[in-house]
Write a structure and sequence with these properties.
The complex is a heterotrimer.
Chain A: H1 2-9, H2 12-40, H3 49-60, H4 65-69, H5 71-90, H6 92-102, H7 111-134, H8 144-165, H9 170-187, H10 195-211
Helix pairs in contact in A: 1-9, 2-9, 2-10, 3-10, 5-7, 7-8, 8-9
Chain B: H1 5-15, H2 18-26, H3 38-42, H4 50-53, H5 55-62, H6 69-81, H7 88-92, H8 99-112, H9 118-130, H10 138-153, E1 170-172, H11 177-180, H12 183-196, E2 200-201, H13 212-216, H14 219-236, E3 240-242
Parallel strand pairs in B: 1-2, 1-3
Helix pairs in contact in B: 1-8, 5-6, 6-8, 10-12
Chain C: H1 4-23, E1 35-38, E2 51-54, H2 55-61, E3 71-72, E4 75-76, H3 100-114, H4 122-125
Antiparallel strand pairs in C: 1-2, 3-4
The chains are: A mainly alpha, B mainly alpha, C alpha+beta.
Chain lengths: 218, 245, 135
């Protein structure tokens, strides 16, 4: 029975979730572009690509004021995002999955690194959740859905880690892992997880805007 | 007290541009903007976290149509009472969200609903009518300048304060306060520029460097006020405008 | 007539033979009657434990040449007693379709995905806690 769910989750549902996710993000990007063009009609073009790019680089790396004024949050931020990318793309099981499906392959990281990075990501999520609940500046800001999103992102990490450690029944744990990853993909376009794509847009816009005054927003 | 739902609807549609929509949706309420806000630094309350200020606006958008007067009043109190739109928060936001711009948009909504705070509203009215936010007449302005110039010439005989001189390099503009209440500041400006040998002129037409339309979030008014100064500068063919602030 | 001693002797010899047979199980994975541990020594730093494999069960229903192969000029010329080491043709460092990892996986995954009861996930085959030595 679980096998049937697993087959579905790694079969048709994979296509559906990925397509939904990509279309959702693409929609947001295209919509931004369209709205922006409408507003810009008749006005001179004043986008500064150099400043936009500089702004993106300064915030993809901790080379900015925020890293200095909020060092722990910055650490947690990188501690979450870097493992997500590295484990997501270079963990052996993920690459083997693609190998078996499509015959494509690329280098992988040792499994021990994946374990360490996943633990780091979970610790970062725990820190962020803790900050949400305890830090005074977030008292008026935190909404239920903020904690829910943190939990949602934690699920694939937890279940993936458990599956790798072979806690519980392997097929069940892996099925939960795949389903929770699908949940993230499907929910993402409706939440602040759209920052995966819009971060770059926002940084480019702000970078260019501040660049008009020949100063950077960092 | 009722409000015109049509005007609200139209204003909100107008404001709902590309950036506003994007920023409202990617604010993750991380709170790191608080580190950059001077309001928060002097009084660390949850209401002084920049991200908090955009909540009323976000609420307004989410509840399209189902808006209460109370919500609008909250919007007004938050966007006028807890922010100076200095944009420091944007420098600290990891996404670079223009929180000040969102506050400005919120002010625009309040302004369109006739809910600009009274002090600001009357100043803006003055600016639109008299060309400056303290309702100083052209006559009074010219008189004040002449008076301070006379005082200055006792100390600097060659000092001048040319009015509407075409082709000067700089157009000087002032804060109306420095004309109406603190003319000694005007004295000091004239002394400074004369001593520096700067080629400047004043304008009887547009000498107010402040823009209460900008502060009020009233974009058409802001454009008009800025346009006044630009028109005067272009008419006088100056190279640059010097503002008081 | 069989005496008790001779029965025990016979049993002892049978067991002895089996032990010997098991001792040569890994790495050649020859045709044997017991579950074997598949762990190719050509992999320098295996990230996963070896895979317990019930050869007997598979050999019952399937044609040998479905898995056992030795290709020459596009033909599979494998015969029953041929000693074939996978790593003889499939390189451990090769991540491509014919590399060692994909070759090993390719032996099982295709059919297992079709069969609802067969193991398909990493952990169902590469079971932790298995000794990395033959039993």
């Amino acid at each position: 029975m679980i096998r049937a769910v697993y087959d579905f989750a790694t079969g048709p549902m994979l296509w559906f979730s990925s397509a939904f996710f990509l279309c959702g993000l693409a929609y947001r990007l295209v919509r931004y572009r369209v709205l922006m063009s409408k507003a810009r009609q008749g006005l001179p073009a004043d986008f500064r690509p150099g400043w936009a790019l500089a702004s993106i680089v300064h915030f993809l790396l901790p080379l900015n004021r925020t890293a200095r004024s909020s060092p722990w949050s910055t650490l947690a931020g990188f501690g979450l995002h870097i493992p997500l990318l590295v484990v997501g793309l270079f963990f052996s099981a993920h690459v083997v999955m693609v190998e078996q499906r499509f015959g494509l392959s690329w280098p992988t990281i040792p499994d021990a690194w994946a374990d360490g990075l996943t633990v780091l990501a979970l610790a970062s999520l725990a820190f962020l959740a803790g900050k949400r609940l305890l830090h005074p500046s977030l008292k008026g800001l935190t909404e239920g859905k903020d904690l829910a999103v943190l939990g949602l992102v934690a699920l694939p990490l937890l279940t993936g880690f458990a599956a790798h450690q072979q806690w519980g029944e392997s097929l069940l744990m892996l099925t939960l892992h795949v389903l929770s990853a699908h949940a993230v993909l499907i929910v993402a376009p409706f939440t602040k997880l759209t920052h995966m794509a819009l971060f770059f847009v926002s940084r480019a816009a702000t970078g260019s805007d501040f660049g008009k005054r020949e100063v950077g927003p960092w | 007290m009722n409000f015109d739902a049509d005007i609200l609807d139209r204003t909100m549609k107008e404001k709902a541009g590309a950036r506003l929509e994007m920023w409202l949706s990617i604010c993750s309420r991380c709170g790191m903007c608080a580190e950059g806000c001077h309001y928060y630094a002097s009084d660390p309350r949850p209401e002084h976290v920049p991200s908090y200020r955009i909540k009323p606006l976000l609420d307004l958008y989410r509840r399209r149509g189902k808006v209460t007067m109370e919500m609008l009043e909250t919007l007004r109190d938050v966007c006028y009472g807890t922010c100076t739109m200095c944009q420091r928060c944007t420098m600290y936001c990891p996404h670079g969200i223009g929180i000040a711009a969102l506050v400005h948009a919120a002010r625009g909504v309040a302004a369109a609903m006739g809910m600009t705070p009274s002090g600001l509203a009357s100043g803006l009215q003055n600016a639109l009518e008299f060309g400056n936010n303290l309702a100083v007449t052209e006559e009074n302005f010219v008189d004040t300048v002449e008076w301070q110039l006379e005082e200055l010439q006792q100390e600097m005989p060659d000092a001048e304060a040319p009015m509407d001189r075409e082709g000067a390099e700089y157009l000087l503009t002032f804060h109306p306060r420095d004309i109406k209440f603190y003319p000694q500041n005007l004295y000091n400006y004239l002394k400074l520029y004369n001593a520096a040998g700067v080629d400047f002129t004043l304008s009887t037409r547009a000498w107010d460097s402040t823009n209460l339309g900008l502060f009020a979030g009233d974009v058409p008014a802001a454009s008009r006020l800025a346009g006044n100064v630009i028109a005067a500068a272009e008419a006088l063919k100056v190279r640059a405008v010097i503002t008081a602030e | 007539m069989k005496t008790k001693t001779s029965t025990y002797l016979a049993r002892f010899f049978r067991l002895g033979f089996l032990a010997l047979a098991l001792a040569v199980v890994v790495p050649t994975a020859d045709c044997v009657a017991q579950p074997v541990l598949l762990l190719d020594p050509a992999f320098q730093a295996p990230q996963r434990p070896g895979v317990p494999f019930d050869h007997d069960r598979h050999a019952e229903d399937l044609d040998c040449t479905l898995c056992h192969h030795s290709y020459e000029n596009g033909q599979n010329i494998w015969e029953h007693d041929m000693q074939t080491r996978c790593s003889a043709c499939h390189e451990a460092g090769d991540r491509g379709r014919l590399g060692l990892r994909q070759a090993w996986h390719g032996q099982c995954v295709g059919c297992h995905e079709q069969s609802p009861k067969a193991p398909v996930t990493c952990g169902e085959c590469h079971v932790r806690g298995q000794e990395r030595q033959p039993r």
